[in-house]
Amino acid sequence: MTNLAATGGVPGPGRIGRVAIGDLLKRAATRFPDRTAVTDGARRVTFTELERDANRFANYLVARGLKPGGKISTICNNSVEFVKALFGIHRAGLVWVPVNTMLGPADMDYILDHAEVRFAMIDDNLYGQPERRAALQKHGIDLIAVDLAGTAAAAGLENFNNLLKGRSEIEPEIDIDDRDLAMIIYTSGITSRPKGAMHCHLAVIMAVSRDDGITGQFPLFHCAGHVSLLSYLSVGGRMALMRGFDPVVCMEAIVRDKLTIFVGLSLMYQAILDHPRRKEFDPSGLRTCIYTMAPMGRPLLERAIADLCPNFVLTSGQTEMYPATTMSRAEVQLKRFGSYWGESLIVNETAIMDENGNLLLRGQPGELVHRGPNVMMGYYKDPKATEEARKFGWHHTGDLGVIDEHGEVLFLDRKKDMIKSGGENVASVKIEETLLVHPAVQNAAVVGLPRPQWGEAVSAFVKLKPAVQADEAGILEHCRKHLGGFQVPKFIRILDEMPMTATGKLRKVKLREAFAEHFAKEGA
To which H or E segment does residue 57 belong? Predict the structure, then answer.
């Protein structure tokens, strides 16, 4: 409640004017009680069922003694039960701490310890992994299970669906303010230990159409999957839940569930287009395809627009800026190629700043900064990193870019990925774009490796497309044709697999570590 003296005797919004995540489902269920909210293969769940069971779970959590502001984790892959639990957690006023199920036991252990989690829900098949189970038992965390594999009872865990029986379907009376902490979502940990980005209820809202249905292959513990679920359910749309990405499963869901929006990584679109069964499925119901994490190479984008959907847009954001900050426009996708991230979303301001806190004019390069209600509340238990991230009253992304004459953000590079070679600043992203144009290259990463006479040497790592042959000399010659001399890699290595985070981001730090001594060993 806002202090009355500070507002001239006018109280804050309280329950009347709040924006709370749990309320989104309730309002949608009132308007669309019998409409399908989520699908999971052939399983269909209405808004009414989600609303009813979210309240049952919230009442269970209250009865267990969990208090508003308390932490609760989910260690789950996508499922109907996960969705019900998610809304129940928010209804109970608890702080959701999702754990990426693709993290190893050590990182999971760190997150649970750092966030001081004492209660969690886990898929029974994940609990069946000995190292994960040992880490959870060490913490003495109270657990309940989603009984996906039918092993919860044998493991001595309460079954989520069973514990809902007999619970009240009426929402518990919990005071929630839209600025209350709603979730702590840990970053990917690309360069260091994961940091816990704190977000309030107000930060996670974006508008879409009630007639839309969206693919749900992104995990709900990731900000892209989570905000897509909330956004589409809030207006009466629907999501097709999937446990990971499979090209055929995605295509089947698009047709079966009449989906209109596809959200994926560039590599997902590539896998669909290259799949031998692609022509068995009609994607004409798609009205928009969204790609995220990184721009799409020109050949792939042209092919995807021609074959899948005429409207492709790129969104960009960070775990710290929930859920996104910029989006490109479909009508300019075939006019400007490269790392164009589009225009700032209406929910936040976007600017370019120099190192002294001065905002720069269009066309001047600097650090990309944002401000708005979607900025995180801070890093959990890390005031120093929080202060550094919000210098000069803006959120600092660590990305270098310019805003061009059209008002679009052109990404130049991560500050830490800019290569200092022979007195030149070399943008790794420019070289990666060139490598991705090569017909044999599926993925590429460029880093600077230590080299005494150069400072850093431009070094490239590529993964080839399946069943395609190429050699390092041929790829190097391709670079010479399309890049300036100072940009051409001094070292190229073809890898069977790239080091990736669980959410599909390249872990360049692993490449730097693994090949740090390359030039020293070569004597160059």
Answer: helix 47-63
Q: Report the SS3 class of residue 263.
A: strand
CB 85 within 8 A of CB 121: yes
* pLDDT value at 191 more than 70: no
On whether both 193 and 210 belong to a single domain, the answer is no
Residue 426, H or E segment: strand 424-426
| Location of structure tokens 């996906």 | 148
CB 414 within 8 A of CB 424: no
Identify the domain containing residue 118 by its residue range.
Answer: 14-203
Judged against a pLDDT cut of 80, whether residue 189 lies above it is answered with: no
- 181 and 208 fall within a common domain: no
In a domain, 312, yes or no: yes
Residue 188 sits at the vertex; the CA angle it makes with 412 and 327, to the nearest 5 degrees, is: 45
pLDDT digits (tens, 9 = 90+) for 86-99: 999 999 999 999 99
Same structural domain, 189 and 209? no
Ranges 16-30, 177-191, 437-451, most confident: 437-451
Q: How far apart are CA 36 and CA 138, in angstroms?
A: 41
**Euclidean distance between CA atoms 372 and 358, whole angstroms:** 18
What does the buried/exposed string (b/e) look like for 458-485 if buried means 16 or more CB atoms within 10 Å of the residue's CB? bbbbbbbeeeeebeeeebeebbeeebee
H or E segment to which residue 274 belongs: helix 266-274
Angle between helices 21-31 and 223-234 (to 10 degrees): 40
List strands edge to edge, sheet with 71-75. 158-159, 142-146, 119-123, 71-75, 95-98, 181-186, 196-200, 378-379
Which of these, 490, 484, 480, 495, lies nearest to 451 by C-alpha position?
Answer: 490
- 268 and 300 Cβ atoms separated by less than 8 Å: no
* Whether residue 74 is found in the same domain as residue 109: yes
Instruction: For residues 355 and 319, state if they share a domain.
Output: yes
Residue 490 near residue 458, CB atoms below 8 Å: yes
Q: Is residue 2 part of a domain?
A: no
Residues 6+ apart with CB under 8 A from 520: 450
Count of the separate structural domains present in the chain:
3
Q: Is residue 378 part of a domain?
A: no
Q: How far apart are CA 428 and CA 440, in angstroms?
A: 19
